[in-house]
Design goal:
Blueprint lengths: L2 E4 L6 H12 L2 E4 H10 L3 H11 L6 H12 L8 E4 L5 H13 L6 E6 L2 H14 L7 H24 L3 E5 L4 H16 L1
Parallel strand pairs: 1-3, 1-4, 2-3, 4-5
């Protein structure tokens, strides 16, 4: 089973991905994590990524797709992937389909954590008192939320048309959200 999980920054995507990964014995692919790994390992690609990011640019779809292919092509992860925060645009969504078909796989379910801007603001103010994160200011949060929602709309439409999209209420507790997600995944397996 391959899963795509979406949600605006602060929706709890990472937390839910970790829980799904453990419960269903899947492997979480976070593009941010993959990029950081390449940089840390100082691979040829990592150095290239580092240069791009340091010059304030976004990493190209091609680089991200190549990183994703390393996992999709690996038999260990066949039909056991959670795509966390990827695809970020329509081109990546279409590329992912092509890539999965190439390795005889597909997306089984797309989960969208639906969370209001008010909830995100509340979570950020709670998190701020626990751990000061550089990117945790309300203004930045609002901007990131709006940018995310605008950019992700075509991708969500793309998956809605494929009848893969399931919207999850991201307003509840971690356990409530996870129970809803688990129920959806279990129903896919039956």
């Amino acid at each position: 089973m391959n899963i795509v999980i979406f949600g605006p920054p602060g929706a709890g995507k990472g937390t839910q991905s970790n829980l799904i990964e453990e419960k269903f014995k899947l492997h979480q692919l976070s593009t941010g994590e993959l990029l950081r790994q390449e940089i840390t390992n100082q691979t040829q690609l990592g150095n290239k990524i580092s240069t791009i990011i340091n010059s304030g640019n976004l990493v190209s779809d091609k680089i991200v797709d190549d990183l994703i292919e390393k996992y999709v092509s690996n038999k260990i992860y066949k039909n056991r992937l959670i795509f966390d925060g990827y695809p970020r645009n329509l081109t990546q969504a279409k590329n992912l389909n092509v890539l999965l078909m190439k390795y005889n796989q597909k997306i089984n379910i797309v989960l969208k954590l639906s969370v209001s801007l008010e909830t995100i603001k509340k979570r950020i103010s709670e998190r701020k008192s626990l751990e000061k994160r550089a990117d945790d200011s309300e203004d930045i949060a609002i901007k990131r939320y709006e940018t995310y929602e605008n950019n992700i709309r075509p991708v969500i439409e793309f998956y809605k048309q494929s009848n893969l999209l399931r919207v999850v209420n991201g307003e509840g507790s971690i356990t409530e959200i996870n129970d809803e997600i688990s129920g959806l995944i279990d129903s896919m397996k039956g």
